[in-house]
Fold each of these.
Amino acid sequence: MGLFSFGYDSFMDKRNVDTLLEARWIIPVEVEGTLAEHAIAINNGLIEAILPISEANSRYYSSNHVKLDNHAIIPGLINLHTHAAMTLMRGMADDLPLMAWLKNYIWPAESRHVDTCFVRDGTMLACAEMLKGGITCFNDMYFFPQAAADVILECGIRAGIGVVVIDMPSAYASDVDDYIDKGLAIRDHCLQQPLLTFCLAPHAPYSVNDQTLTKIMILAEQLQLPVHIHLHETKDEIKNSLAENGVRPLMRLHKLGLVSPNLIAAHMIHLTDTEIELFHEYGGHIAHCPTSNLKLASGIAPVEKLLQKGINIGIGTDSAASNNRLDMFAEMRLTALLAKGYSDNAEAVPARQALRMATLNGARAMGLDQITGSLSPGKAADITAVDFSSSSLSPCFDPISHLVYVAGREQVSHVWVNGRLLLNEGELVTLDEADIMQQARRWQHRLVS
């Protein structure tokens, strides 16, 4: 009786929370540095407190007390540019330049096969890969967005859904108005879903005309939605724009009123100093996709110059059809290394900046930086745990450096989104991985035939 009473009284003195998470290191990102031997109290999907373990144990009680003695806890990674369903086309047409890849393989395959089932199964495969790699939020652009939204809500990840617009008919929509009407109807239907946000997603300047871009600009201002677009990805894109429109693509968008703090421009590789200054002045955001840029031989973005101007840069994988991985650890490392090599400056994009680009900067671009992207009280508990117990991560002088230059997605052990555990000891909680792989094989046979 005495022992029971002691335990009961102790618990009564503490605040009960949904999850109490202890770790060797906590890396908040928004506040620079590393917190050693700290804990996070999570309640109702939010971070309630971050404090030393001893203090946490004296103030909080939880029936779900997770102790990760050899782990670093970081904000969930944010994939700022991808096309999730295209994961079903991973490796289908490799070692080709962008337009040959699109025109000869990807667009024909999409015209024959992309439907609601394709997008559902492809997005499910992508979500499984992203969650296992520590990604808690992604910014998507693809057809049949309702199918993608259904998967996102089913598995519990966070995402921005693109209202995709392109000046050509598809199995999804017959014309520009059809694309917009269907996309905005899905947005209206999902407005009360806290894990979903929406943006307008015109594909690219070369696939969307001025009339359509003007319509996008007006809608973006009326609805206060971001605009997510491919921009300045290749030299041919710029050459063709000069021939057809008399200006480079960025200047064309600027004249149409689209360069603003609402703009998320994917790639942004080939830029003049004047264009960098313009982009900085009007406050756009960039989704840097280093692996896809290299694999398609599109080029290397001037990341150091852009950061020196104060331009907000997040990191994206692009699709698994052009990458071929949805691996933000690989993208962080490549972002840092390319910036150093391109600029002849070893101090360009240090590890802490690469981690910020993969988390808080991406959230800021999506308008979510008050909700996610860093670890602080009041924000959503979107959390990734990275296991440092492997010999390949020893010794560790600086866990932030190790996260960028040493660790890989195979070290991700746990993932929470909005306080909900979605990956536990490397195993998916809300998704059936065996079934997902079976569906992927079925689509492989269909695409080959």
Amino acid sequence: SAASDVYKRQGYSCSNYVDGYEISPNNPQQSSPALLTTVIEVATFSHYTGQFARFASIMSQHGAGVQAQYEDLGKYDIFEGDNTNEWASHYSAINDCNTLIALAGDQNPHYRGVARVLKAMNLAITTDLWGDIPNRAANQGLAGEEGFNPAYDAQEVVYQDIQTLLSEALTDFAAPDNVLEPELDDLIFNGDIDNWIITAHILKARYENRLSKKDGPGSATRALTNIDNAIAAGLTSAASDCNAIFPGDGNSLNQWYAFEANRAGYYKMAEGFVEFLKTITDPRLPFYVGPDASGGFSGTPLGSLLTTTSYVGDYFASPSSPAPLVTYVEAKFIEAEAAFRAGQLARAAAAHNEAIQAHILQVTGAPADAAYITAQASETEGSISLAKIMTHKYVALFTQFEVYNDWRRTGIPALSPNPSGSVPAIPRRLPTPQTERLYNSSMTSPISDITLPVWWDQ
């Protein structure tokens, strides 16, 4: 046009306005280790503190689903199409981990180690929910049609691969020379590799401990070895906790807070859990549990749809509350359980007592009073029991997915299924995703029975 000719003659062609700006900074064309690390961590936060944290809470009866989709969840109406988005999100994160592992390479082993830890965590929550899953053949679609239908690996094999990933990560973290180092892009530790080393050791202990039904003595011994390694690496307190971090604004809100803000009344505290905290006069009660409609603390009874009860308290559900992923307190409870199973009763009692007292101090900001310590955290070699360890771990790991895994392994605490449930037992897994049944020809035996235990739960 005449107008455009004028602009061109004066040096104002359209290209002058857009050169250098046609590529959005929010949609980069190439990934970097820093970018991928942030993306993977944010996805991992969602996987461990979002939908499946609430699912685990309802199954383990910390909470109750009382409205809309969560009423269905509370009644165990769980179907193959319900979590296809979550399945896809897990594999997207795992694929990003693979990309970061390759991109970091030998020049950036610390980034590679972080990627391996995060991949292990995402593989673990996926297999813990679905059992056998694609792993070794997964995320290879770019190689062509042979990658479109990835084979499933037995859960036992997936757990072996998880341990391998964590061992490789520890080797990476020991490497002194790195061209690039994680910094603020690492939302969890800001590049503190010492804390990543501790986290990897605790995770190795967690996943060994997971095998208590399959190899009781061996899993206990290996878990204790990894706890000892974490202690040797500097584990002494909650200062090295691996947490999901939420700045508290925009789309960066704590997931428990954001859920209540958008779907108030869908989820409530469970009566049994709240009443247990009252029974033992637990000082964490007002931190765990928000006020109900009457200004007190209450939970919804099992099988009820009462909505005037409490929601999660501000300690875990404020806009910027960090969400625990892998912690000192969990490590001490793993130590207590594994030591108990290994016959090291004095060590089990000491770790149990320390876990309780450390967590109360962390949550409330003050030490537990003498009466509480005497009643709940003064176990000895002669008085410690698995029931005491797992019951207090159940209390301390409130909001965490790991509670559901522990309940499946140990049956502690004793829980009754929802009397209004669509199945007669508390679900022990998720059904095979609909997308896998329909589109992955390697999935030849889809599972619909949500009461069927996964391998490590058998």
Amino acid sequence: MKCLVLAAGSGSRLADRSGLKPLAVVAGLSLVERAIVTAQRAGADGFYVVCGHNSTKLVAHLVDVARRRSLVIHPVFNAEYNDGNGLSVLAARGLLGAEPRFGLIMADHVFDVGLLRSLFSQAPAPDEAMLAVDHDLSDPAVDAVDATRVEVTAGRVRSIAKPLGTFDGFDTGACVCTPAVFDAVGQSIEGGDTSLSGGMSVLASTGRLQALDVTGLRWIDVDTPSDRRRATKWLYDGLRKPNDGFVSRRLNRPLSLRALTPALLRAWPGVTANQVSLLAFLAGAAAGLLFATGQPVIGALLVHVSSVLDGSDGEVARLKAQESGYGGYLDAVLDRLADSSMLLGVLVYLLESPSLRTIIGAPAQVVVVAAAGAALVGTLMVSYTSTKALAEVGHRYSGALVGAGQGRDLRLLILAVGGLLAALNAVLLLGAVSVIATLTLGVVVWRLAWSARATRVRRPADLEAVQAVVLDFDGTLADTMGMLSDAAVRLPRQAQGQSPEG
């Protein structure tokens, strides 16, 4: 389905430094790019963006978005953009007039992808349109004074306007249209109303504007700096993952969401999720180097930075809609390289520690190699068993500690704490490494047992050998106890060739 995006207005209350509202950035993406990407994820496959104010910069941005995301984006020009957004809709008539239906959204709205997905799956009649309506009149994210109000009766919009006395919902700024919308907007303009709402009102007056209830699916009309802050907070709040472990939920995620990811996006607006994954690896590799050169405290701090960055790359991917199979693959590979670098650096540090030789004595080097080697092997095997189980036996491990994708944040926290405590005595870092070895190898052993149980071949029941089936209705239909008692005695004796009365 094609999608028409209205982005022609000047938006003086929230203009980007370029002087163009659609280029205002919200959580790492411009408003217009976020609108396009959300519509694409909801099912749209071709985009017509109406440009007006400062169109040269907007078109340049759209060309970049199309190149980066391999999208088909057609700029549509409206020289009369100051005279109402209904004129922007009419500007696309020559391009979309033959489409049986198309989506229509506002570039300055941030939508829940579920809202657009639900809307785009609808197919209004050829002479109708369908408007997404939010019936939550108390939503603090909606400016009830500025929002366009609607009154709905029996699934049809009866009236739509900003100054509407009686209303039960808000226009979300998203609809599915048929070419009938062009005639309706033209009729509205002839009557002196050049707004899109005027055209929608024409459809509503003839019972041709359906209402899709999207209450509970979020949307924000970003008109002011406070709207942008609310939209940003909403998008960041949605990054929390239900399967986050305790360390991620209580320590790493608050640091990444409140500080690290926003700082990255401000300092490096064009940063990609894969680049953040690379930063996480570099922090881990630097930590290993610092351990190896006898600086465990700074190394420990970088271990934790690497751990937080490991969550930040996913946040950037979701904020910028950059999730990809290759991104997940690259992240996993770089994580294993970082883990290996850190543990090898710790191994070098412990082997050269005089305090360990003093406490443990001659076997110190053997103990260190055994503990660090077990931790390294266990860490790699945890990742290997996850992917191998999914590829070979078709199941995914679950659980707070032994589940696939779980436990790395805890292991890195243990290593970071051990590195900090190494300033007191290296034996404490050795203890941390031993704990990691025990945890990882324990997880691997548990997974092996779990997979063995899950894939064990069980002998199917031999139904051909069944000669009788006794059902006890427990008095539901009749008193069957006497009959069942007789059957319990008679049937086994008959099966053994004995007299039933014997």
